[in-house]
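ok trying this again, last paste got cut off
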Amino acid sequence: MNIFSQAFASTSEAPQGNPYSLIIMLVIFGLIFYFMILRPQQKRTKDHKKLMDSISKGDEVLTTGGLVGHVSKVTETGYIVMSLNDTTEVTIKRDFVAAVLPKGTMKNLSSSS
């Protein structure tokens, strides 16, 4: 019986450690979370905002839906009118532009088909 009471007594005691170790570990995890997840996402958001602000008439753009066209009009309300070919124009929200393509991309795409 003495062995069991000693084993029970030793397991019921709380281990004494550095009280700051938990705080330090939480700060380290917080820094890892910030530098691995939050900061890159903020950078992508900032770059996309800069791209949206730089769109102007005549740019060739690719939308998130896969459409490629020339910007024929930029409105102040956040929409752009994009001409897909000589007869088709589409109005889309500026936020759905995925990339501004180099000049001549549409010409190269249509000649390769």
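PB: full thing came through this time. The chain has three helices and five strands.
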